[in-house]
Amino acid sequence: MKKVVIINGPMGVGKTTVGRLLCNKLNRSAFIDGDWCFDLHPFIANKETKDMAIDNIVHLINNYINCSHCDYVVFNWVMDKIDVYQKINKNIQSDDIHLYEITLNCTEEALADRWQKDILCDWRIDEWLSISKKSLRYFKGLDTIQIDTSFKSAIDVADKIYEIVVK
Length: 167
Description:
Elements: E1 2-8, H1 15-25, E2 29-33, H2 47-65, E3 72-76, H3 82-91, E4 97-105, H4 108-117, H5 126-140, E5 145-148, H6 154-166
Parallel strand pairs: 1-3, 1-4, 2-3, 4-5
Helix pairs in contact: 1-6, 2-3, 4-5
């Protein structure tokens, strides 16, 4: 049975780092960062581009599900609108797969600390941090496996997800 791990959460919580670490721990796995499917310059977020990104994401996930050399698909993205999350989940080919829906969360303080340390990302500005902090409540309300990353390393979080998925 194929296993698809969807890692959701606010910007800056550690989804990409955890997803990469998890994928490296899993044998025969693929990693998809939703940002790759929505990488426009200049960045434009409207219905057309969001629908395109969702279509790209679903296409990649389904291709990996259908690949005989892949047992796990690890996908992460900020899905702060329930309809986006539902469109992706609804269109994943669901025959003979196990879907793990995981949301990473943290405190506002931990988010701000991570934000300041992420020097590789040029859009980590105060305006986006404020937006991300405001989204914490939404993500904590999702009916998914919730993992608080506030006082955990990315390796610890990846290990916890690994235990859930491989059991």
